[in-house]
Every structure is written in C-alpha cells, then in structure tokens.
C-alpha cells in the first residue's frame, strides 16, 4: 500500500462525508444550526468522543457548538494563548495532539475535565483569515489517523464556505449568524451558555444574585397537529416577541431549541424579582394569537433557579430550573383536568 492509499478513507466514509455536506446545504444559512449539526455528525464520521467548533473572539476561543464529551462545555472560553485551538488560529494549519498528557501546547486542565486525550484541530478560514476551528476529540490517546484528518478537513472547508455564504463582507454580522437563532432572532443556546458562564462568574466575584428562567410552550405539538406547522412556527415567533416585551434589555433571552426558551436575569435584588418576571411572562401569554383566520391559545410553563442560592454549577442550575418548569406544567395540567370534571 502506498502513502496515498494510507491517507485515504474508505469509500463508505467518503460517501458519509458527502451526505453530511448535502445535509448542510439543506439547512440554509442558519449558521448556528449548521455548526451544531457538523459537530454532532463528526462523532460517527471519525469515531470521536467529542467535537467542537470554536470561534476566536477578542483574546478567547469560545465553544459555539459542542457534542459528545464536550457538550457540557458549550459556551466555554479559553485563552487563545494557552490552547491548541489558539495556535491553529495563529498558524492557519491543521494541528494534531496524539496525547494531551504529553503535549505542552494544550490546556491540560480543560482536557482532563472533559476527559480528552487526543485531538485534531482544523482551521476555519473566512475571507482569508482563520476565525475559528473544528476540533475532534477522543478519550483515547493516539486515536486519530490520516484518513480521519482527510475527512475532517472536508467538513472544515464546508463550514468555512457556509460562513462565507452567510455574510460575505461583515464580520459582525457573521457573529450574529453564529450566535443567534435564525427563526426568532434571539440568542441561541451557544450564546446563552456563554453568557450564563459569565453571569455565574460575576455572581462569585461581585457577591451578587442572578437567576436563570427556563420556559416552554404548552401544547405546541397539538398546535402543529391541529393548525399546521406554519402556525406552530408563528407561535414560536410570537412567544419570542412576548418574552422580549417583559424582559429588560440588560438581560439575555434565548431560544434553546424547539419550543424551549431561556432567560438570564442579572442582577436581581430578591427572589420576588424572579417571581414577578414569571408572572408577567405568563400574563403576557394570555392573549391568543390570531393567525390566518385561526385563533390559537397560548400558554407557557416556567421554572427558575437562583444564583448562588441554588448553587454555582451551570448544569445543576439548568437541571433544577427544568425540573421546576415541568413541575409547574404538571400542576397546570392537573388543575385543568380537575376543572373539566
């Protein structure tokens, strides 16, 4: 077998990357969704345990899409000067890390926390400048092969091309595309997690209080079934507008996915501030939506967690807010069922 054959992936893998590229095109110009799709497909493409797309923002590399063992680090910021991704940004070259424990270029603490031992980092070059990276990671040392790198390079080229299509001339607009939901214009999950991490850090540093509110629409599936998906999309957009109407501009409102939304209230003076926000949000949803000669009733369920009263671990805070939101949903369902009988 010659060197060329050793570097080439199998026919099945080439077909797989072509199919991924085709699916990317179908996603249109929703860059946030494209990036998340790519990191999720990277797992099976090269049998990796995690994948990340990081964008360079000022002096930091920010996790804007993440999957697998890196998923919980969405929104994480690492110094450009102390990471392999930062070196990739500077050099514009593909970099590999066979074993993170033996590599002085990597952020060992971050690798250990996520369980990463091997990495491949590929540049995302936009308008002649490398502005981000696609990174595949494994819990096994010496995991990635030359065929893996070949496949990942094809994905990186595709992501960079979509960045170019999204916004040809405006770097600020590219940032908006990467960090905001295409349907509603709200912050996406990646930007939400980024700001959530910043909020938690500020609460610790300045001894202040904040809160995270998780809410979703009640009965969206029923709306889609009874009125059609166009009506469902209209409901999501309307909900996004009404959340913004009761939220201060200094706070963060995000569409986390589907019919789930998140709000970061920072700072707050007391728990009553959060309770008032939830009441105002639920009250603002009372008015039905009139869409194409149809009247659609809207309702939402909310749950929240307080920072630092309920803790400082991001995953635990979101999980707690989720549980409280579903508890509120069950309570509303029980009351409605009782009233009907």
Brief descriptors of the model:
23% strand, 6-stranded antiparallel sheet, Beta-Lactamase, 2 domains, 12 helices, alpha+beta, Alpha-Beta Plaits, globular, 4-stranded antiparallel sheet, 341 residues
Tell me what the structure shows.
The N and C termini lie far apart (76 Å). This protein has helices at residues 3-7, 11-26, 31-45, 84-91, 108-114, 146-166, 171-179, 189-206, 220-227, 229-245, 271-284, 314-340, and strands at residues 50-57, 60-68, 77-79, 95-97, 118-126, 129-138, 209-217, 252-257, 260-268, 289-291, 294-296, 300-307. With 341 residues, the protein is of the alpha+beta class. Helix 3 runs antiparallel to helix 6 (146-166). The model has no long low-confidence stretch (mean pLDDT 89). Helices cover 48% and strands 23% of the residues. It folds into two domains: 3-179, GAF domain (Beta-Lactamase); 189-340, Reverse transcriptase/Diguanylate cyclase domain (Alpha-Beta Plaits, 2-Layer Sandwich), CATH 3.30.70.270. The strands form three sheets. It has a six-stranded antiparallel β-sheet with strand order 3-2-1-6-5-4, sandwiched between helices. A four-stranded antiparallel β-sheet has the order 8-9-7-12, sandwiched between helices. It is built from twelve helices and twelve strands.
Describe the secondary-structure layout.
Elements: H1 3-7, H2 11-26, H3 31-45, E1 50-57, E2 60-68, E3 77-79, H4 84-91, E4 95-97, H5 108-114, E5 118-126, E6 129-138, H6 146-166, H7 171-179, H8 189-206, E7 209-217, H9 220-227, H10 229-245, E8 252-257, E9 260-268, H11 271-284, E10 289-291, E11 294-296, E12 300-307, H12 314-340
Antiparallel strand pairs: 1-2, 1-6, 2-3, 4-5, 5-6, 7-9, 7-12, 8-9, 10-11
Helix pairs in contact: 2-3, 2-6, 3-6, 9-10
